[in-house]
Amino acid sequence: MTTRALLVALLAVALVVPAAQAATPRASLPDVEDEVMCLECGTALNVSTSPVADQERAFIRELIAQGKSKEQVKAALVAEYGPRILAEPEERGFSLTAWLIPILATLAALALVVVLVRRWRRPGGAADPEAGAAPAALDPADARRLDAELAAFDR
Amino acid sequence: MRPRLYWPVTLAAAALVGLLAYGVAGTGTDTTLDDAVRSGKRVDPPTEPLQVLGRKGTGSLADYKGKVVLVNVWASWCEPCRDELPLLEKTHKRLSGEGGTVLGIDVKENSEAAMTAMREFGLTYPSLRDPDGSYVRDFGQTGYPETYVLDRRGRVAAVRRFPVTQEWLDRTLPPLLEERV
Question: What is the ipTM of this complex?
Answer without folding.
Answer: 0.78
